[in-house]
Design goal:
Elements (H helix, E strand, L loop, with lengths): L3 H14 L4 E3 L2 E3 L2 H15 L20 H8 L4 H10 L13 H6 L1 H18 L8 H13 L2
Helix pairs in contact: 4-7
Length: 149
């Protein structure tokens, strides 16, 4: 059951959050129908697609990686590269909201190392990341792996 205080606050917010009027041609207008029309016009103009600011990329050349670098980036990571990447990560860095840092990963590598390698190889084969993995942890970890090449 809600209190008298709750209902008074709700009533106060409802009264103060409403639009009571607007300036139309430098005159204050309180007519609700006219105010609705002006508010709609304002937001339609504000969020209308702009066609004049189109970016043209004709003649712009983007740098590309060669086939050798592409193969290196597409190859599966070896166990030694994964272990080296874990070793290079700062021990006090926490990869996710659970609070486990790389010190835990390094200290328990003999227990969870095989599972970690399986997760990375599963990602390589399927392209899917396990639901519980934190995106920042994955990008940080894969960045360390690619720096080893």
């Amino acid at each position: 059951m809600n209190s008298k205080f709750f209902h008074s606050r709700l009533r106060w917010r409802r009264l103060n959050n409403g639009i009571k009027g607007t300036f139309i041609n430098e005159e204050w207008c309180k007519d609700p129908d006219q105010v609705k029309i002006e508010v709609r016009k304002h937001f339609e103009n504000r969020f209308q697609a702009q066609t004049k600011l189109r970016v043209n990329l004709d003649g712009v050349s983007f740098s590309r990686i060669d086939n050798v670098d592409n193969e290196v980036l597409c190859n599966m990571f070896s166990e030694s590269k994964i272990l080296a990447a874990v070793g290079q990560c700062g021990s006090s860095k926490s990869p996710g909201p659970d609070g486990y840092n790389f010190h835990v990963l390094k200290y328990n590598w003999d227990i969870i190392g095989d599972k970690m390698i399986n997760v990375i190889q599963c990602f390589y084969e399927t392209g899917y990341i396990l639901r519980g993995c934190n995106a920042s942890f994955i990008s940080f970890f894969l960045r360390k792996l690619t720096l080893l090449f």
